[in-house]
Each structure stands twice: as C-alpha cells, then as structure tokens.
Amino acid sequence: MKILISVDIEGVAGVYHSEQVRPGNPEFERARRLMTAEANAAICGAFDAGASEVLVNDSHGGFRNMPPDLLDERAQVIQGKPRYLSMVSGVELGVAGVCLVGYHSRAQGRGILAHTINSFAFARVKLNGMELGEAGIYGALAGAYGVPVLMGSGDDAFIEETRLLFPQAVYVQTKRATGQGSGISLSPALACSAIRTGVAQAVLQRAACAPWQIEGPVQVEIQTQTPALADLFCQWPTLARVDGDLLQFTAPDTESAVRMINCLSAMSSMLR
C-alpha cells in the first residue's frame, strides 16, 4: 500500500507570520524544520498503519523547503517545480490515499496566513461555482486520479472549511486562528504526536473515504488581487474578462483547470 503525504507550511504548529514562510531569513530556517518534523510524524503514522511505501510531496512555495537529509529515510520525497500535478504530484503513481499536512484556509478566509495558491495573484478561485482553497482544488485533482483525501492538519479555519468537502477524513487541529498572523498553537511535539496518530487512523479507515470529483467541463472564475493582474492573465485568448478584477475560463476537466490556474500563478511574477 502506497500513501502520499502533501506538506505545506502555513498550517504547521508555531507558524504565524509571513517571515516564517519566506526563504532567505532565520525565521524560515526554523519554520522549515517544524514543517519537516510534521512530515516525519505523518510518515511514521503511515508506516504504523501498514503502508509499504510513502511519498512526501514538498508543497510550499518553490517546493524545496524540507531538507531531504532530515526526512525519515523510509520515505521518498517529491521536490522542485514546475510539475504538472503540483501539490499532489504522486497521485499518478497508484497511491491509496493522500494526507494534507500543514495546510491552511482559502483566500479571504479567517485562518492564519490564509491564501489560495498565490497570495499576490488570487483573491478568490471558484470551480463550477464552488469557492475553494488549496485543499479543495488539489483534493479534486487527486480525486480525478481516483485518490481520496484521507487526512488533513492545520488550524481550525482550515478544518472548518475542508471538512465540508471531505467529511470522512481525519482532521488534526494544530492551532487556533485568532487573526491572519496570530493564533494559539499546540507545542510542536504535541502537534507531531497528534499528526502521527491521525495519519495512522486515517490510513486504517481509508475504505470510508471516497475520491471527491468535479465533473467536467469545469467553469473557473478567478478574482485577481488587482485589475493589472487581470490585464495580464487575459493575454490568454481563452480567458474572458467579466469585470475589472474578475475573469473566467472553461476547462474540459479538473486537471486542465488546475494546470491553467498554476500557469496564471507563474505569469503573475511578471508584475511583482
């Protein structure tokens, strides 16, 4: 049995501020080790529950945050970008389920460091009328490959919005949001213990979780952070401008929709 663990950083215990999630400063160096510790806890939980193989997807920023030499040697790590399936790369390799560790709530949400894919570019993302964050978008992409979301960890805002999409998954609350950059957190040690237990429970009861799929064609609506970004994105002839900061396009399926969203995210760097 093969399990995929997708690891982000904003939902990790003890992480609150943008300095902690941006490479190039001491705060990030500490936070990336907290991220790695939660990944290792998830790896242990998957093996505790009988996994024969564990893949760990580094899913924050440039996708090369966790030092490979600090990860559990039993796991294989997926790092670097670009890659077509982004935060759930590995679902194409025949995994039985995916666990979302260190995730956060969607853009405009009340959670700690809430955003959707790219905080500079996107204010809101909707697929077939559903406003989704990264857990929903990439959970749907995993579902397109027949892979269910088994578990999620992060703050209470993340869990509140994600449980609606994946009600049978196991959730571990690592902290409680009191603002965009503040909260009340478990200690890293206690968070890791809870994640290990949660992943093991989720893998053992994986049969209760079904893949969540969005039927195509997929209508995508994106509210950009500025009209200038909408100007840029609408250079793609398949995108329609609805309003100053609102655009739409139609994709034949979920994977095509997500890959286009990620292309737009990459394009936004031209305006930074």
Number of self-contained structural domains: 2
Shape: globular
Q: Which strand order does the major sheet show?
A: 3-2-1-4-7-8-9
DSSP strand tally? 12
Taking the sheet with the most strands, its summary is: 7 strands, mixed
User: What is the overall pLDDT average?
Assistant: 97
CATH class of the largest domain: Alpha Beta
Q: Strand-and-helix sequence, N→C?
A: EHHEEEEEHEHEEHEHEEH
| Gross CATH architecture of the largest domain | 3-Layer(aba) Sandwich
Roughly how many Å apart are the termini?
43 Å
- What structural category arises from helix and sheet content? alpha/beta
Give me the CATH fold name of the largest domain.
Rossmann fold
Computed Rg: 17 Å
Report on the structure:
- The structure is a single chain.
- This protein is of the alpha/beta class.
- The chain has 2 domains: 2-117 and 134-208, Rossmann fold; 218-271, no CATH class.
- The protein is 31% helix and 25% strand.
- It has 7 helices and 12 strands.
- The protein has a 7-stranded mixed sheet with strand order 3-2-1-4-7-8-9, with helices on both faces. A 5-stranded antiparallel sheet has the order 6-5-10-12-11.
- A hairpin with a 2-residue loop joins strand 8 and strand 9 (182-185).
- The longest helix is centred in the first third of the chain and has 23 residues, at 26-48.
- The mean pLDDT is 97.
